Amino acid sequence: STPTRPKHVPTRTCISCRSTGAKRGLVRLVRSSDGRVLIDQTGKRNGRGAYLCQTPACWQSVLDRNTLVSALRLTMLTEEDRAMLSSFARTLATEHQMTSSDVSTRHSGG
Fold it and tell me: Whole-model pTM?
């Protein structure tokens, strides 16, 4: 019989803590054509994307520093986008307390 190959699982890196994990375990943020930041639940939206793990501390970190602005190549983060991201981060805080994160600690290069 033919040996079956393991299914390829795409990995991505969190722009805050630099940990790697399965693409599905991270949240994708996208710069839209009009320069706004959107949360891409499907992972398929057009535009420059960046990934964040589902840890509230990572979300707070990118809002406090200019990490997201650099990653998405924005000129600035609008107040509306900042408020939307903060609101989303608060929903993660309650979910994160109930479940453990999918993101592994530091990927060991192979």
Answer: 0.78
